[in-house]
Hints:
- The protein is α+β, with helices and mostly antiparallel strands and 400 residues long.
- The chain is built from 13 helices and 16 strands.
- It folds into two domains: 2-140, Phosphorylase Kinase, domain 1; 147-396, Transferase(Phosphotransferase), domain 1 (Orthogonal Bundle).
- Helix 7 (163-183) runs antiparallel to helix 9 (247-263).
- ATP binds at residue 94.
Amino acid sequence: MTCFTVCFKKKASSPAKQTSAFRKACTAACAYICIKASNGNSERNKDEEHVKLFSYKELQLATENFNPRNKIGEGGFGSVYKGRLKDGSLAAVKVLSTESKQGVREFLTEIILMSGMEHENLVKLYGCCAERDHRILVYGYVENNSLAQTLLGDGYSNIQFSWKARTKICIGVARGLAFLHEEVRPHIVHRDIKTSNILLDKDLTPKISDFGLAKLFPDTLTHISTRVAGTLGYLAPEYAMQGQLSRKADIYSFGVLLLEIVSGRCNTNKRLPAEDRYLLERAWQLYEKRELVHLVDTALEDDFNVDEACRYLKIGLLCTQDMPKSRPAMSTVVKLLTGDMDLHEKKISKPGILSELMTVNSNTSYTSSSGWEKQDNSTSQNRSRTYTTMTSPSIYDRSN
């Protein structure tokens, strides 16, 4: 465990006190991070030194022994607690359940990908706990929870999502994804972009969270074939049906997210009339009729720029094109959103709509959203992670 000690500045607990699977995960994480450290990226290496290995006792004290009143979220992989660290800073302490079969894998992935990663629009990993069989991630605390809870949730929220606030959120998420897709080496595909994984700080600056499903993506590959994971409603058709993953899968998910932010509604709501249940289908219908303005959230009343709102909705449709090559790169999306690039020359065709390509099993299972979202079951039918049995491949249910 020498590498672990170097990378995290503190000696890990004895391997004899860890489960075999967890010990292997820690060893793999050490090896990977140390390999990165040998690649000559001095700026990234310097950042990595700041990732800390917390003791379990430290986190017990920070969260008042994981007091239920400090719980701010719960999902298929455990619970998230608000805590105050010894230096006085607030943290979100993500405790992975020991019963979770995928917990070790996701723990490993988040350490590898988030160690030393710094960007205004990504959550900040402070460190982790690797004592015995405890798997705990410690992130910077984000005051205003997730978009799923505050913008789309049925529960009470005193946040006023003005048009200016929404454009800031859309652009911020786009910039975070552009950083992952184009600036980080190897590139990173998130694989689970959705409202519950977009957190908001006190200034409503968005932070992309939950990297447990993320994949590293070398420059040399156009796509990789992998088991499908994510959330129905946000999955790109080529990925959901064929397991072909590329950065364009994230761009599709972002397009759906963009439509949700502008419209103020979930991508799927079966309580609505049949013609309105699926947001992407409804957006395309209104686009063909040149009536996209009718999709804008009525909560905005008249306090928004009509042309800009319609442009954002068109960008959402552009990001969800059926053919992956027709979707713009995230750096291009940022320019389109900020008005630094003209949208008029972009050809928008019918988006790829997964419901038209597959028949969802009537016994589709619903599981709770992951980690960061506050406990609120009022709209769980609209934003829960889902999976269904398909011939090739199956969508991987993260909660098992």
